[in-house]
Backbone:
């Protein structure tokens, strides 16, 4: 079976090239791609698209994949993909969402997280296609798209300490376009290095906090209409210190059946468990800012009888243990205080 890619991504390349006067239709015809299709949600053969990218990059712009990824990549993801990214409680969950949904954008993609003590490598890997025409452009494009996603959480100017690329070399001008301290080539996979201390960050943090590096915790922001998820979230928060807020109890409080409640959440790309995790995690982050609160107390306040179960939930959602989260926060506050003194 041919590998496929959603047409939105080649259309983004085409839009960028047309702005520079490149005769895109000529390249489309040469590679057997449609010249009139404007439906972004159809799928086309991947290798034909790659060949188009490869030829144009060699003739017109060696940084093509990097440029299009930065300028268009995040906008070209499907609406449902973006919606679920926005619903992620933390950056760590957003990256897991990418891994889960990426094949809805291109069937060949394999994303993953390589866990390390102090950081993670968020990677893309498709070894059976390495060396195919367009492989390097595709990986450059992907890495820029993933940087766009990371910046939703870490700030628009955030740069990683290190990026890895599978190709033996990258364009000489790449460092001017992307001033990352270390770009490593000829790697086993393409990747972005992300400090573990960043994984718990939410997309709802204010701009000042992102720019200064401070971590702030905000309560859930409810809409003016206080919609279904807002209402259920507030009930879960109110009852969770009594223990796990069961589906049956919450459905009763919502004046509905369990089946209807689950269906309402599914229509919003949510599960009941994920919503409970989000509410518990947000409350736990607030309480962890209080240095006098023990992990056991916080565990009980969020509905856990066993602190070990609480710690597993916190790490699953935030990618960091509660103890390490508290250490990161203390160190951040200390650095901020020292900077203000100077």
Residues:
């Amino acid at each position: 079976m041919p590998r496929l890619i959603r047409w939105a991504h080649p259309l983004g390349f085409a839009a960028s090239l047309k702005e520079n006067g490149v005769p895109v239709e000529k390249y489309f015809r040469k590679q057997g791609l449609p010249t009139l299709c404007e439906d972004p949600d159809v799928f086309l053969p991947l290798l034909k698209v790659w060949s188009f990218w490869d030829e144009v990059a060699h003739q017109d712009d060696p940084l093509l994949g990097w440029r299009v990824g930065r300028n268009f990549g995040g906008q070209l993801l499907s609406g449902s993909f973006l919606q679920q990214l926005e619903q992620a409680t933390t950056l760590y969950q957003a990256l897991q969402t990418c891994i889960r949904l990426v094949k809805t954008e291109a069937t060949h993609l394999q994303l993953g997280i390589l866990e390390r003590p102090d950081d993670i490598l968020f990677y893309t890997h498709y070894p059976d296609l390495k060396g195919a025409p367009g492989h390097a452009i595709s990986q450059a494009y992907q890495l820029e798209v993933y940087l766009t996603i990371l910046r939703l959480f870490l700030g628009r100017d955030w740069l990683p300490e290190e990026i890895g690329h599978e190709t033996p070399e990258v364009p000489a001008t790449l460092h001017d376009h992307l001033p990352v301290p270390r770009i490593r080539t000829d790697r086993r996979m393409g990747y972005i290095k992300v400090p573990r201390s960043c994984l718990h960050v939410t997309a709802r943090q204010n701009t000042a906090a992102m720019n200064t590096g401070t971590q702030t915790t905000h309560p859930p922001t409810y809409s003016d209409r206080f919609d279904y998820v807002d209402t259920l979230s507030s009930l879960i928060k109110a009852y969770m210190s009594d223990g796990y807020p069961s589906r049956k109890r919450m459905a009763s409080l919502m004046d509905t059946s369990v089946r209807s409640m689950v269906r309402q959440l599914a229509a919003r790309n949510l599960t009941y468990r994920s919503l409970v995790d989000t509410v518990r995690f947000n409350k736990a982050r607030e309480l962890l800012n209080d240095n006098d609160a023990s992990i056991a107390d916080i565990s009980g306040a969020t509905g856990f009888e066993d602190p070990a179960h609480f710690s597993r939930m916190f790490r699953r959602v935030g990618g960091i243990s509660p103890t390490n989260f508290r250490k990161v926060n203390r160190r951040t506050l200390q650095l901020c205080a020292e900077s203000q003194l100077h």
Summary: Residues 205-225 have pLDDT under 50 and may be disordered.
